[in-house]
Amino acid sequence: MDRLDKSQRKAKRNAWRQSEHRKAQAAYPLPDARLETFFGLLEALRSEHGCFHDIRHALAVSGQLGLSEAETDALLDWCNAHGGYCDCEIAANTFMHWHETRART
Ligand SMILES: [Zn+2]
To answer: Is residue 67 part of a domain?
Structure first.
């Protein structure tokens, strides 16, 4: 068995992480820039009004962004898939998933 030195291991780990991130990015329901706007507006509403244990803020932001019904469905399915079932969970869990997997600039 080949033993990898530290820098080879690091390179492998980075390559693996990058491919995981690319897979996650391919499943984004909206372009990254729109997700950034979505999370920014959602967090503003959530911090001002709190979470009502529903998705009223997410729906309000979706309306503000002019998303179609299909886009909104895709967005909310993606939120659910990443632990976001209400506004505060979307702002925390789904946001973290996005933040960790989005392309670094
Ligand atoms: Zn909540």
So the answer is: yes
Please tell me the distance between residue 5's alpha carbon and the centre of ligand 1 in angstroms: 45
Q: Let me know if residue 1 belongs to a domain.
A: no
Structural domains counted in the chain = 1
Ion ligand 1, residues whose Cβ is below 5 A away = 51, 53, 86, 88
Distance 43 CA to ligand 1 centre (A): 12
User: pTM for this one?
Assistant: 0.89
For residue 94, how many other CB atoms are within 10 A of its CB?
Answer: 25
Taking the centre of ligand 1 as the mean of its atom positions, its distance from the CA of residue 33, in whole angstroms, is 24
Report the alpha-carbon distance of residue 28 to residue 21 in Å, rounded: 11
Cα(13) to centroid of ligand 1, in Å? 34
Q: Please name which of 92, 97, 87, 86 lies closest in space to residue 29, comparing C-alpha atoms.
A: 97
Encode the chain (105 residues) as per-residue pLDDT tens digits. Answer: 567 899 999 999 999 999 999 999 999 999 999 999 999 999 999 999 999 999 999 999 999 999 999 999 999 999 999 999 999 999 999 999 999 999 876
